[in-house]
Every structure is written in structure tokens, then in C-alpha cells.
Amino acid sequence: MWMRLINLKNSTMNETFILNISIVVLFLPLLGFALLIFSGKKLPKAHIVETLILFAALVLSIIIGFTKLAYYRDHNIIGELSWISLQNVPVLGSLNIDLGIKLDNLTVIMLFVVNLISFLVHLFSIEYMKGDKRYNRYFAYLGIFTFSMLGIVLTHNILMMYIFWELVGLSSYLLIGFWFEKKSASDAAKKAFLVNRIGDIGMFIGIMILFTNYKTFTFDTIFAQISAGNLPFNSPIWLTAAGILIFMGAVGKSAQFPLHVWLPDAMEGPTPVSALIHAATMVAAGVYLVARIFVLLTADAMLTIAIIGAVTAFVSATIALTQNDIKKVLAYSTVSQLGYMIMSLGVGAFAFAFFHLVTHAFFKACLFLGSGSVIHAMHHEQDIRNMGGLRKKLPVTYAAFLISTLAISGVPFTSGFLSKDGILAGTLAFGNLTGHWLIPVIAFVVALMTAFYMFRLVIITFHGEPRDHHKYEHAHESKWVMTLPLVILSVLSIFFWYSYNPINAESGWFLDKWIKTPATIVPQDMRFDFMKSTAFVETAQQSTGEYITHSENYVHTMHSVHYPAMILSLVVGGIGILLAFSFYQWKKFDADKLAARLSPLYKFSMNKWYFDELYNNYIVEGNLKFSRFLSWFDNTIIDGIVNGAAKVTRLVSEVNNLFDKYVVDGLVNFSAFLSGSIGMGFRKFQTGKVQTYVVFVVFSVIILLFIFRPFF
Amino acid sequence: MLQVGLNHYLFVSAILFSLGIFGIVTRRNAVMVLMGLELVLNSANINFVAFAKFGNFGMSGQIIALFVIILAAAEAAIALAIVLNIYKTFSTVNVDEIDKLKE
Questions:
Q1: Model-level pTM?
Q2: Cys-Cys with A152: which of A164, A406, A450, A494 at CB 3.0–4.6 Å?
Q3: Mean pLDDT (whole number) for A410-416
Q4: What's the farthest any 2 CA atoms get from each other in chain A?
Q5: In this structure, is residue B1 part of a structural domain?
Q6: Nearest Cα to A400, choosing from A505, A486, A504, A320?
Q7: Which domain range does residue B47 map to?
Q8: How many whole angstroms separate alpha carbon A244 and alpha carbon A247?
Q9: Separation of alpha carbons A621 and A240, rounded Å
């Protein structure tokens, strides 16, 4: 059988129903894309249709999420169909590739987040993009982007994930380069695409390491094999390698150091696109991928991931301190927060990483859409030095922006406080247990810088006196389609959606009931010490029936560092905010003087650590040099060989030509000449005179008579 | 008294044949060539009759001679018609000048 209908594992009718809805949710945005891209400008209200489609998808995903979390909380719903099933493939034996959907708590929450933010971005774009000449195409691109992102979220195997991963890359390319007439936009799109590709190569190699060993792409099958002690190539190093290589894909998509350079440039795209791609979906895909493969990460792989996350968080936070473009600040803050999530996964705080992913998606989307509202009001002015005092002109935007800023800075009673606090506690516990103290130190420094630069942004943009009076006078609050998403997102940045206790998320339903750290499947001797299960935990596991990855030691440490971490994070957050106010609001210190005094550091940060220059000078230039060498090689050596071959062929054919001309033609001409001259000889006999013929006849008869002599 | 035998007949026939051939070969006028042709035919007729008289062949020689005469008449009619047409085309009946076939 090449293909069969969806084969459900131990399912009731209700599960089938949920699966069917999730397929509908997946394909709705694609339907919107097809509708818009093929109708072109013929459908005048196409954007309304697309937004309604997304609204339908949102409603359906809420239904799915509710059903899953309420009735199937500890039970994953899997539906798969056999896509390719071949026997007798050389080398592999039999080849089976399944397509499928896996709905676990992670999936349904992501499904909701992606659909909600996509819908809000659609709504926001209706007004923001009004008057654009490729209005319909913009919505079509949003549709295909949402489709590919939902694919990543829903799939149950890594091959499909890779396919949708690339689709996300493509659609982000289309969206970032949407205003491709601008050179900077088309360059940014290309940069994003190429940088992502570098990460994807690693991811592909990682996938192939797993596939060659387990002959399947399905996550659960691979994990089952590993937990049965069947390691890739029978070597723990290969398991580490597979983990790190797949993580490389996340490095590209989630803009981790050293591939973070594409994300700030991608701000060339329309601002709602930035909110969609760079807050909630595309960059979250990397974190989601690492969360999916979390169980197969060895201690070495996790340490690598934690270090890369920490470096990313630190580097981009320092850059964000000095940027003057409103979107650039948000872009680097996004990179920094993504570094946080990755770091959190690396230190084993799985649940908090995912929690932060969700909360960050909401408040960062709010920040981006808020900046879009500001840019819209200021007639496409993005430099914060020309803003100021916008609080009075844009009250709704200001309120939403402020709430999100409080959330990202980790102020209590916001969602960001809960998730960030968990991450900080996780790093602190990690440092405590393994001795890698630098990681929590970096985490706290980054928390301080985050609070500082976010409030710097808010103060310069919204407080104080207007600097550009002309633009300020014309600024006005946007229509409801733009402010409504801001309000919804800022409300979602408040704590009570996640936990009734505003200072501790552990007792909230999000962490307590929905998101559990999955049990690691890595062999015991390759785990961190704190992830080795002890006898105590195993009994606890049996009694409660829940997954517990960490040892009792870890759980204890986590609890003991929770309050220190919270107090520390409050302190650093407060210091950051105070510093921002004293620099920019109260003008106690002069920021410019400080910048002048720390001129080398300031320039270093202002120029983004010279990453672009470094890459341009060494990697891009080196690449170009190599390409030039290859071009030279092509032009001289390869072309030389080809031309030489052509010359030899020509020479041979010239000899052939001569042979033809003189020998073959000579023979033919000679035979023609021979028969011609014989004919000329015989021609003389044919005089045309009858009497001559008669004479010939008579003489011939006489001669014949003599020859045969019939009478003698 | 000289007995007229087969050889005399054959001799006359041979002379007549030779004269006919001579006429065919030497004459320029197509009509004269035709006359030579008649002589040749008649020499053959003499041969038929002579062999019929001296050989033991019954009357077949004479009958064939009759046929030849009839055939000669027909041939003369057709040939003269051809000569007329030649004259119409070339404005001459001189066989030396009618050598279109040569080209």
C-alpha cells in the first residue's frame, strides 16, 4: 500500500475529530494564500477574507487547545499516514516515511499562540499596509508564512519539520524583502535566507545521522530507540553530534550567536511582519525545535546550547543599549530574549524556556506592533532621537507599550516576570550544581541591561519633550484595527493568564499542569549529574505517574534558589529601570558624556560588535575570493580543456575534410570522368544519320557471318 | 542451252539486294532510300520464291512473298507519310541533314 487514510492509534471518535480540525487549521492559511495569490487584484476585499480565515483558524485552535488541555492533558494525540513505503531500497533495506500530526500540550499551546498573533498581525496590517501597491500579495505571504509555521508546530516527524522549516525560510524571505525596490530590503532578505541556510545544513546533517541509524524520521520512534540503548553508530559522541547539529538549525532560525546577524537587518520588512516573524513564530521555531529534541541532548550538547544562548543574550543586549532605531532596539532585544530561552533549555529548565517563549511571543509582538503604531503615526520615522513626548498623542499605544516593557523587564505582576524569574532560577541552580557560574552571572547582567535599554526606549520615545515638532503635530492615534491587537497582547502580558500567584509560576496551571519537562532518554553516564534519576525520584515517578527528569537534588536546589533568584532579578531589574530614568528622564547623568568617555566601548556596541564587518571582510570576502579563484579556474583551466578538445576535434575534422576532398571525391570524380570519356568515345558512332547505321548493320552482319560461318 | 537453276535466282537476288543496300546507303533523298528498301524486300521475295520452287516446301514460299509484298505496300504508305511529315518539319527530305537525334 502506497498510501492509506489516516491511521489512528487507539483513538476514540473525539480524537479523530480533533485531528481533523487540526488538519483544517493547518490548511486554512494555505487556502487563503492560494485564494489571494491567484486572484491578484481582482478580489478587492481579499484582505478581509484572509483575516477571517485566520480568525476561523484561531477559533479552531482554541477549540483544539481547550479539548486537548481539558480532556487529554496527559495523553498525546497522534495521527499518521504512510507517505512513502518502499521495499528493497539499496543500502537501506525497506524505507518507510510517515506523515503525521502529533498533538501534545506543547503543540496546542504553540498552535494557539501562532494563530492568535498571526490573526492580530493580519488585523493590524489592514490599516498599516493600506495603500500599498502589493496589498493583496502581502496578505498572501502572511498566509503562507502562517501555514508553514503551523506545519512546524503540528508535525510529528523531523522530515516534515525540515520541509516546513524551509518553507518558513522561504516565506520569511518573501516578507522581509516585501519592499524589494529598496536595496536594503532585498539585501536583508537575501542575508536572512543565506544565513538561515548555514544553520539548516547542520540541521540536515543531524537529521541524516538519526535517519541512517534509525531508518525513520518520526520523533517518538527515534526517541524509543535511543532510550532502548541503541545509540547512533553505537557511540555517545554521535548522539552529542546529532543534538548539536540539529541545534544548528535553531541557531540559524532563532538568530543565535554567531548567526544572529540576519535578524536586525530583517527589520527592513514591514513592521507587522517583524512582529509576526521576529516575535512569535519564525524565531520561536528554533526554540520549539530544541524543545522537541530536548530529550536526546547529552550533557555536552546541553552545555554547548547553554553557552551559545548566554553569549547571544549578552552580545545582543550590549548592542541594544546604544541603538537609535526603534525597531533595531527591539530586534536586538528579541535576539537577547531568544538567547535566554536557548540558554534556559541548555541548563535544563525546559518548562521555563517554553513558558518564556509564550510570554515573550505576546509582549514582543505587542512591542513590535506598538512600534509599528508609532512609526505609522510618525509617517515612517524610525529614529527615536526624532521622537519624544508621544505619550499624549498615542495614549493607547503608550499604555500597551509600557505594559509590555514592564513584562520584558521582569517587573512583578507581569507574565515576563514569571518566566524570566524561572529562567534565572534555572541558571542559578545550574551554576550551583555544575560549577558553570558564568552562565547565571551573564543571565543577571543581561536582565539588568534589558530593563535599562527597554526603559531607555520608552522614555526617549514617549516621555519628555517632542524633538521633531512638525511630525509630532501630525501624529495621531491609529484606528481600532491597530490598537485592538495592542490591547489584546498587552492584556495577555499580565500574570493572571498563566498563574494565580503573581510571584511564583510553579503553582500556576501553565507549569503545574500543562508543560512538564519530558524524561530524558540519554544514557545515564552522558547526562549531567543533576539529571540522573535517583532511587527516590523513581519511586516518586511511580507514585504520581508523572515524568520527572531531574534528580531530587536538582528539585531541591531549584526550590532553594528560587527566592534568591527572584530577589536578585528584582534588584537588577530595578537598577536597570532606575538607571534608565536617571539618564533619560531626570537627566541626572548625561548619557552623551558617558558615551564620550567610554567612546571605544560605545562605538563597539553602536557598531554591533563589528559582526557585519567581520563577516563581510573575512567570510564574505573570503567566499568572494574563492569564487573568483573558481571563476578563474573555470575560465582558464576548464574552458582551456574544453577549447583544447574543440581545437583537436577541429583539426581532426580538417584532415577528414582533406581526405574527403581529395581521396573520396577524387575516386568519385575519376569514375565519373572515366565513364564520361568512354561515352565521348562511343558518341562518335552515333551520327544521327540512318545511312551510317545501315552501313554498320551490313558490315556487322558480314563480320558475324564470317565469325560464325553458318554455311561453310 | 543453259538451264536456269537455283544459283541464278540467288545471284539475281544478291545483285538486287546489293543494289538496294547501295541505294539505301548512298542516296540522299529519303524517297530514294525508301526505293532502295523496296529493292531489298524484293530480293528477299525472289529468294523465298526460288527456294520454294527448288526446295520441297510446297507453296509456303510464294505465300510469304505475297505477304511481304502486302507488307511492303503498307510500309511504303507509312514511310511516305513519315517522309511528308519530315518535309513539313525540316523543309527537306535530305537524310544527311536530318540528324536531330545526334544531339
A1: 0.74
A2: A164
A3: 83
A4: 157
A5: no
A6: A486
A7: 6-90
A8: 5
A9: 32
Beta-sheet strands, E only, within B1-103: none
Q: Is A690 near chain B, with CB under 8 Å?
A: yes
Count of domains for chain B: 1
Are the beta carbons of A691 and B24 separated by less than 8 Å? yes
Alpha carbons B3 and A288: distance in angstroms, whole number: 146
Give the whole-angstrom CA distance, residue A496 versus residue A231: 43
CATH of the domain at B56: 1.10.287.3510
Residue with cell string 484561531? A58
Write out A70-115 in H/E/C secondary structure: HHCCCCCEEEEEEEEEEEEECCCEEEEEEEEEEECHHHHHHHHHHH
Record: contact B96-A694, CB cut-off 8 A: no
Within a domain: residue B96? no
- B22 domain-assigned: yes
Q: Position A347: which residue type?
A: V
In this complex, do B100 and A689 lie within 8 Å of one another by their Cβ atoms?
A: no
ipTM of the complex: 0.79
Chain B contact set for A691 (CB, 8 A): 24-26, 33, 95-96
Does B98 map to a domain? no
pLDDT in tens, A234-264: 788 888 888 899 998 888 888 888 888 888 8
Q: How far apart are CA A481 and CA A485, in angstroms?
A: 7
CA-to-CA separations, A289 to A216, A342, A434, in angstroms, rounded: 17, 10, 25
List pLDDT tens digits, range A532-586. Answer: 655 444 444 444 444 455 556 677 777 777 788 888 888 888 888 888 888 777 7
CA distance A209 to A211: 6
